[in-house]
Amino acid sequence: MGITADSSSSSSPSSSSSPSPYFPLNLLSSPPIKIKEMENSRQVQVRFVTNLQPPMKAPANSIAVPSNLTRMGLSEIVNLLLKNMSSEFQHQPFDFLIDGELVRMPLEQFLMAKGISAERVLEIEYIKAVAPREEDDPCGHEDWVSAVEGSNPSFILTGCYDNFARVWKDGTYLTHILEGHNGAVTSVSIIKSKGLDGDNFRLATASKDRTLRLWKFHAEKNVDHPTKVSAYKVLSGHSSSVQSVSSSPSGDMIGSGSWDCSVKLWDVKDSESDSDSVSIKKRRLVSETEESQSEGVATSTFLGHTQCVSSLVWPEVETVYSASWDHSIRRWDVETGKGPWNMVCDKVLNCLDVGGESSALIAAGGSDPILRIWDPRKPGTLAPIFQFSSHTSWITACKWHPRSFFHLLSASYDGKVMLWDLRTAWPLAVMDSHKDKVLCADWWKDDCIISGGADSKMRISSRIAVQ
Q1: How far apart (Å, rounded) are the C-alpha atoms in residues 433 and 449?
Q2: Which residue among 60, 61, 85, 255 has the highest number of C-beta atoms inside a 10 angstrom radius?
Q3: Which GO molecular function, any one, fits this protein according to its record (predicted)?
């Protein structure tokens, strides 16, 4: 078990007999290089182009290549071209785009499917292929890992069914244990920094105990053993399990979604006196001293969903999105509490994220194996503009890449995390290192995917260079 590329990229071209001798390519005035070709294949003229910088920029002249090449065959040609230009070039797998779409079938088949003439010189753009590497030592927990957050490059925040949240420095070292919840931690969020120095952070957690908690911690450089942290504020008001929490872009507020069908907004600005909170006492778990802890109440409550609010995202200061088991996605105006946009599909929804082009596309997954993407800017239709269906069970998490319009990930009860590119219908990579259901996933440091599951592990897949 581990990380695999999509199945189409490893399939052989269709042919019945054994390969013929090597096929020479004329490369400017250089000696010919050779590549294996299937017997009786016709040729197409191609020109390879790229935005990559030398030494990964191939010659601009056109060459004839076998029409039955797959992505791997095209990658071999480009590597030979680059190696011919510089003997020090190291082999690099590539992906290929024709007219903006990733090639995921033999070249001739792709051209026929897209109605592209093979009589002209084809311009094929090549980019670095995604080749994730699985970390050797997963971070073990005492129970199911239900939540992961990777928005800060220096640490990973996890939530667990053992009622604790944890901070993992560099994704490896357990430095802080957040204690205080009386039920499973269902969702976690790193609150956007505002007025804090680089080593101090604020966190929010949601739990089945019907509360949210706010935490502060200092990122120590050297830790011999984990530090136990108590919440500085408890947010009460939901009447059932809190399923999701998300920080506003400003860092002044957080939003929550619950099994009580409501969305609530909470003020998390620090102040000496808070009219919306009362002081309570709680004995610290790491010492015998008493500490003051405040209890906050919601500043706004949005009603409209009729079942569990399973996922919440806050991509813009004035807008919150929520997904629910009532089959709907709602967009809320933070100022007025009104939901001017409401989209209904035919499935229970477990996860939601907003990103892609202009940060306007909505991705969601739920009680079937299909990851769906909508564009609410398109008037008159609520049909998904993309549907990806390689999973085999319910989808539990989806997340857009923070820097790419094209890429997003999904996680599923089938035990897999998949990486998607909007330019092809097949996953770029499949990570199947979990031994049980995957419950959560996120991006970390732009080129890593972190995930948690029912196998009580948090796993990291790295070196995911998306373009």
Answers
A1: 12
A2: 255
A3: ribonucleoprotein complex binding
Is-contact 447 464, C-beta < 8 A?
yes
Max CA pair span of the chain: 83
Enclosing H/E stretch for 76: helix 71-85
Q: Whole-model pTM?
A: 0.84
The answer to the question of residue 467 being in a domain is no
The string of pLDDT tens digits covering residues 354-375 is: 999 889 999 999 999 999 999 9
Residue after which a domain boundary falls, among 128, 163, 187:
128
Distance separating alpha carbons of residues 383 and 387, to the nearest angstrom? 10
d(CA 111, CA 78): 19
Q: How confident is the model at residue 10 (pLDDT cuts 50, 70, 90)?
A: very low
Q: Which two tokens stand for residue 457?
A: 């592990």
Is the Cα torsion angle 410, 411, 414, 415 positive or negative in sign? Answer: positive
Q: What's the distance, CA 34 to chain centroid?
A: 40
Amino acid of residue 243 = Q
* AA letter at 145: V
CATH number of residue 162's parent domain: 2.130.10.10
Q: Which domain holds residue 87?
A: 3-128
Q: What is the CA radius of gyration of the chain?
A: 25
Same structural domain, 123 and 147: no
Which of 428, 431, 466 has the alpha carbon at shortest distance from 450?
431
Give first-to-last CA distance, the chain, whole Å: 26
